[in-house]
Amino acid sequence: MPQAPGIVKSASGGNRFTASFVIDGIQYNLVGNLSPSVEEFNSFDASLEYNSAADLTSNQNFQGRLGNADLSFSFENGTKITGSLQMPQGMKTEVNGAGTWVVVN
């Protein structure tokens, strides 16, 4: 599976996040919701695994976890985001949610 480096960070409140990855000079942003709400988090060394860029153009549900030192989100279409947390969580939390991919040219 192809991979792309990027970042993931929490947004306002504890139930929203954004992620950004660049593939072949095109920026792909993901805006997502988490359930349950979590503490603020950032991952500046995130990695996106995907089958094709076509997988990064729609709404997707995911399941995952925010651990003491890392995060992992697995999407229905096989896409996966992983990374280490710069601001560790107090405890490992299982999460689920949905995100919308947006292509920025």
UniProtKB/TrEMBL annotation:
Name of this chain's protein: Uncharacterized protein
